[in-house]
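Help wanted!
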Amino acid sequence: MGSVGAKEVPVLLSPEGLRIDGRKLDELRPIRIRAGPLHQADGSAFVEWGANKVMAAVYGPREVHPRHLQQNNKAVIQCRYNMAAFSVDERKRPGLDRRSQEISKVIAEAFESVVFAEEYPRTSIDVYIEVLQANAGTRCAGLVAASVALADAGIPMADLLPAVAVGKIDGKIALDLKKEEDNFGEADLPMALVPQSGRLVLLQMEGHMTPEELSRSLDLGVAGCKVIYEKMKQALRDRYATTELPGGSA
Amino acid sequence: MSGEVASELRTTHVLDLAASGKRLDGRALDEYRAVSIEPGFIATADGSALVRLGDTVVAAGVKLELGKPFPDTPNAGVLTTNAELVPLSSPTFEPGPPQPGAIEVSRVVDRAIRAAETIDLARLCVTPGEKTWVCYVDLHVLDHSGNLIDAAMLAGVSALAHAVVPAKRFGVAEADYALAVGHLPIECTFVRLGDAIVVDPTFDEEQAAQGRLTIATDELGRVVAMQKGLVGAFSPDDVRSMVSRALAHGDRLRAAARGGPA
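Answered by r_m:
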């Protein structure tokens, strides 16, 4: 932030235990998911999650570029997580920085765990995530959008991947941090769940938590993922409730 | 590949239709697709707009930051236009450094904004030679269904028309104020399909096109920029006819960009 002047640490929890936007500690921000908003992509989804706005598109299975990444026994899953220059307060230089590359990698690996890639040898399934407006939790919002986009593209998978971050603010474990909580919080723990198996395929952590806090965070995150899972399924039901063909006007 | 065969068949079909005055989506040759503009779509930007031109979608975000003026123009602010043709928006875009197509979109839009004097650069300057506002116009193509230049231009000027200078946040004034915006240039793009010249081409029409011409006009009825693209040629009479059509479309689209009905 630098030039804009350091801001004071805001009060993150009220005496009543409510957060700056009035949420309880175990409460998610409002989430809206729309499946299939794009016309060129084989599958797409738009997620508005709190003040996050994230678009995802899936292309494939298609030819692998660059060719040397091709695998003879399965499809490769390539992911590109990118933030628009105007998605954050201080303009971000366009293009993939190291953070974006790391997030792209862990998201691709999460999907490799659930997509039946062996059904499409020598192809690529390309997952593109564009963060248009960021307010903490963009990798989880991106993952949720990409997961719905994969389903919208008709890619066979073991399950959808709901994702959410748990953090720590004023010493308390809290679900789904927003930007101020993330900036001034004490920990951030994003995760993605395979609901059918109860296993986590994305898990990162930054900050400090006791083992007991970490354990509670995992439970809280899994519970949050289950709520998001229902919203993801509903978005797909809404998309295909009509007889409209994919790629038609949305 | 099957994709190429399909597109060759479609190209033939697009040209056949145009020869009888018809288009794939049922539009008349001089009919523009429906335009919708959603200003303020991005809360993290100082000005923004989401533009839908038929199935083409472009998001524009304006950011204003304090920087140094260029040494050769110490009294002028800085304007930077950048277009991202992200691979999310089309099966033909690949990840990597900006492709010529993206560079063309950003430069054509940038040229029109400068030529129309949409932004008075002198008013962006805070302290000559030392401090000025740097105005970034970032254009993010989300769905490429043809005619990116017009959609990007509309998104860019709509975002500028609704931009607020964050003067308070940067500590150079007591309050934020609306960015002073003069003329709004509007691009209008045509392609040749055989003997026909159609406005606002779709993706399929661009694939079939034998020449493309983009004409930017302002509200005074002036042409402020032009760009010929693709392989093909236009006669001077073709150009004259397109200019008058561009002016008519421009008036309607400009009202939409300012915030009125499309």
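OP: Thanks! One thing I noticed: Chain A has one domain: 28-240.
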